[in-house]
Amino acid sequence: MSQVHVTTTINGDPTEFLCEPDETLLDVLRDRLGMTGSKEGCGTGDCGACSVTVNGRLVCSCLVLGAEAEGAEVATIEGMSDGETLHPLQRKFIEHAALQCGICTPGLLVAAKSLLENHPDPTEEEARYWLAGNLCRCTGYDKIIRAVMDAAEEMREAS
Amino acid sequence: MVQVRIWGSLAAATEGQTEVEIKAGTLRELLDGLAEKYPGLRPQLKRGVSVAIDGRIYNDSWFQPIQPDSEVVLLARLKGG
Amino acid sequence: MQYVAPQSVEEAVALLADQPDAKVLAGGTDLLVRMRSDMADPETIVDIKRIDEMRQITQEDGGWRIGAAVSGAEMSENAALIADWPGVVEGTNLIGSTQIQGRCTMAGNLCNASPAADSVPAMVAAGAMARVVGPGGTRDVPVQDIPIAPGKTSLGKGELVASIFLPARPARSSDAYLRFIPRTEMDIAVVGCGVSLTLDESGTCTDARVSLGAVAATVLLVDEAAQALIGTKVDVAALEALAAAASAAAKPISDKRGTVEFRVHVAGVLARRAAEIAKKRAGGAS
Amino acid sequence: MALDSKSDTQTRDFKVVGTRPNRPDGIDKVTGRARFGADITAPGMLIGRVLRSPHAHARIVSIDTSQAEALAGVRAVVTSADFNKIEDDDFTADILDNCMASEKAMYDGHAVAAVAASSEAIAKRALKLITVEYEVLPHVTDVDAAITADAPVLHEGRTDETVPAGMSGNVISRFEFGHGDIEAGLAAADKVLERSYKTEATHQGYIEPHACMASMGPDGQADLWCCTQGHYMVRNTCAAIFGMEQGQLRVTASEIGGGFGGKTTVFLEPVALALSRKSGRPVKMVMSRSEVLRATGPTASSSVDIRLGMTKDGRITGARAELRYQGGAYPGSPVEFGSMSAFAPYDLEHVKTVGWDIVTNRPKQAAYRAPGAPMAAFAVESAIDELAKGFGLDPLEVRLKNAAREGTKSSYGVTYPAIGLEATLRKAKDHPHWTAPLGPNQGRGVACGFWFNFGGDTCVSLNITPDGTVTVSEGNPDIGGSRASMSMMAAEELGIPYEKVRTIVADTGSLGQNEVTDGSRVTFAVGLATIEAARAAKREMCRRAALVWGIDEEAVEWIDGAAQPAGPNAGDHPPMTLAEIAATASNTGGPIAGHHEANPEGAGVSFATHMVDTEVDPDTGAVKILRYTVFQDAGKAVHPAYVEGQFQGGAVQGIGWALNEEYIYGEDGVLQNAGFLDYRIPVASDLPMIDTVILEIPNPGHPYGVRGVGETSIVPPLAAIANSVSESAGVRMAQLPMSPPKVLAAMQSK
């Protein structure tokens, strides 16, 4: 099983790696590139903890092959803050105590960022349905949705 | 002497009584006294118990004082989730 | 195992034909799950997402041709397609989460051949045609003829679905898809139902197709259900007859998601509700 | 949050406690830098994988690992032969047998062998090369079927002395609690309800699968990194399994991605240590989601029979419950806690609960948030509701009439000190939710719930840095934000800003023994130790100030973050702030610290009342949660946002348990839904906002009045939702989950 050479861009950085043909993008990020921010909660696309964007499209990185990243633009949680400046969603999640254990937080933040890029002024129901693919077992989602709506408002006022 | 409440399924080891008297001034003396007077309780005491003294739960504190008029209740060993 | 990403349909067909154990990768949201649980272990993966032709949504003969590599998310962003075929688009958009929508495709959902596939009942009701390409050339096949049993399709060696064609729509026609799941998202359909219909100026139904998912080994096209609508004003009586016909056609099993009785009953409920939505979308009096 | 009743230590006006600061570990968690179990790596690390039994019950005749060992890249293969037999310690022996089967595979997914290899792919291939010869035995997975005469018996000689003779060998223990004369009590009732209730097994559902990395040298010294609710428990359990000294094994807790009781034991750690010792390399093991569901502690499934007597005006005259719980293939279901907590919210003259611990061919149970209590409350609160409504009485009024108060003798024998149940019921009655209008196919349900608390070994070390900032080291993994609470209590006690304190979770080499993070004990017990450690540091800082001022130590007191003379005759020295004392610490005697080790007792209990509105689709039986309000007594909410988080998280786990979650076994004893697709936990779009009302009836056993709140919130939802569905669907559901097919069938047969 010869490995595949992939040239891609991750969080704006040109990146090259070798991976098995059947290796997922999630395993490449975590085990080859040391980016452990994306988490594996299920490996079958049912929990969303491994959410990243590929060419701007929100996906589960456990259901994408590393080989498919050739020439793509991948964005992960590690690229969400800008130097020491947190993204408004990151700040609001902390302010609203929208996380307890935090294992689902990276996937939820990437998904919420994608939501606000597509729907800058979502209703609560739109936010809940967009984020239905990100399972959280600690919070009951209440404070997460409040943090997302609060961040949306702040970002609309800033734009 | 201290009045100790035993839960129902252990009463078989205390001649059917759910209230027994033990000479004890501390939690350790209570547990040792129970094991001494009612050998049938030893398996459960080995498996572990909690003791409620005047409404508050104690698991291990041997030297926790017990007043003669304290309400003392034997409970299954508490663990949480 | 090897991963290849052909640039053209011909190249894909050639690869599929001469590789002993090759599987097509479109969205991968079924294939990669089966590979991880050792239910699939292909020698070769043929990724079709670099074939430009398969990534297009184009209008053709008044209808729509949707490439096999077009994701559900891309379909949900095409307002004109949604205007013509709201039921087909909503059926595809109910597959999994937003993250799954970023990857899954109608053709992949069709070829995975699950009886509970969400996009297939709506496609069948729409009278959609699958364009099959292979070593023997190209042929157009009604979508309901692709799946033949759970996990099995009628495709031959080296054949793949290149695109799905949704036919042109006469005036006052529309469609709808509903499914029943215990949660509000993320579940596999316990029952699915697609209804497509056309009304005349007086609001009388002149044509209808009704399709059920998750109530038999494959998605069903239920002619008796369609007959219950054609010639009526899709009124309460017609809807009751539709529901009865849908329940009668359902031949489900009991499994971890639902019982026989439940699926039979809910098949009728969804058929009636989907028909009411399709009627309203087609301009019929609600 | 006004304090509802006064006592001396709790009347102080808190400066930090009660506010909502940002948690110290927040930045790492929102940037992806936080390191969870599976994020740990080491040079030369191997990957470990487990081979699991496909059979529900089978004797292991032989295991041939030769082919696997011969595969290039495989460095070690272990089976139960690699572990020594544990004598006269059933508790630890069962844990080891569950980590690695010995004579028999007890359930589908039971570990029978494990390999360590240089890559995941090689490890997976090696598993396929291990041949296990099984002698398949008959199995049983249902709790009631397990105790029939012809049911296959799982263990010989594990039935204990409390079980009457002649019962199935699968019955392990019998518990009985209560007081009074049941028959007399029931005779005095105007109506006696007899009904049986069943609930299916559910899983804690934490999103992070179990993960660890072990590194064990030939000299017997070892290091272990793992996600756990108690790394000291992991150390002690693994040391007992390997017969090694506890001090030789250092366990470091990673961040934990949820536990809820499911990570209060070990599943992978002993196997990883054995593989590491045998291969001479660090070994990392991470479970897949299906392994987590097939082979790690779900809670028990239950079968409960209730007999409840009530007068026309709503007084409960007699209450009896028989509880049968199966906790998987090993003794230890939480039936004793179900039996003790079933009627705990009520003041009953005649009450009796009998609990049976039963084994079946299912994975070994682990605690799940108030273990044993939700299933018991489902039965009791449903029965009370049905009787009350049968007499046309208001369900809240009936609960108020029977509510336990200070001085009530509880059903488990203890007379209550000050408790908050009545306060939660009154708050519920006055809340706008109780009188909000309802539409068609809608209904409202209420239920009460209770859970114990306890202290347990706790160590905290608090250090003052030369620049006057404070570091707190504790030994309890922080799942729900407890590091913030510890920093708040330290800052409160020292009179300094919260931002000056940083709390970390220290490894087992840094502190004395610590009990596991469970039983809602952390804010209570670790908070107490943090306060005492801060007080110790204050005493030392006052001593240093006294030295500098040349006055007696007793003449110095600590006010608002500084040492100052206690009175006029102590001299008019200007106050010395913490920072000033810290800056001169090396001159006045050396570094300053305060530490506290204790087994704090005197934890209070926490009561709650839940209120929920549901809407049922009459055509499909689907139940939708419209509105949810939690009323719970927290004693003192240190960080209100995280107290609300416990209320909301527990309620939503209860919603999943009530509506959709269940372990589904086929006839072949194999788990059919070992994944998040068909083990359906609630998703964001299923739910409304979860409203919370925090009550504060102080717990006299804590300096700030704190009560443990982490578990009570999962107890009421099962019944509250069932009581709501009895209105919205008009059917009394006595089985969980209330899945649409069951609700529809019940409505159709009405």
Task: Summarize it.
With 81 residues, chain B is of the alpha+beta class. Chain B has 2 helices and 5 strands. Chain C contains 11 helices and 14 strands.
Account of the 3D structure:
- The complex is a heterotetramer of chains A (159), B (81), C (286) and D (750).
- Chain A contains five helices and five strands; from the N terminus they run E-E-H-E-E-E-H-H-H-H.
- By secondary structure, chain A is an alpha+beta fold.
- The N and C termini of chain A lie far apart (50 Å).
- Chain A has a five-stranded mixed beta sheet, sandwiched between helices.
- Helices cover 21% and strands 26% of the residues of chain B.
- In chain B, strands 2-1-5-3-4 form a five-stranded mixed beta sheet.
- In chain B, strand 3 and strand 4 form a beta hairpin.
- The mean pLDDT of chain B is 92.
- Chain C is built from eleven helices and 14 strands.
- The N and C termini of chain C lie far apart (55 Å).
- Chains A and D meet through helix 2, helix 3, helix 4 and helix 5 of A and helix 1 and helix 18 of D.
Provide the low-confidence segments of chain A as ranges: none
Which parts of chain D are unreliable, with pLDDT below 50 for 5 consecutive residues or more?
1-9
Mean pLDDT of chain D, as a whole number?
Answer: 95
CATH class call of the largest domain in chain D: Alpha Beta
Query: How would you name the CATH homologous superfamily of the largest domain in chain A?
Result: Beta-grasp domain
Major sheet of chain A, described briefly?
Answer: 5 strands, mixed
Described by its quaternary structure, the protein is heterotetramer
Please identify, by name, the CATH architecture of the largest domain in chain A. Roll
Give the integer mean of the pLDDT values of chain A: 97
How would you sum up the global shape of chain D?
globular
CATH architecture of the largest domain in chain D: 2-Layer Sandwich
- The CATH homologous superfamily of the largest domain in chain D: Aldehyde oxidase/xanthine dehydrogenase, molybdopterin binding domain
The helix/strand series of chain A, from N terminus to C terminus, equals EEHEEEHHHH
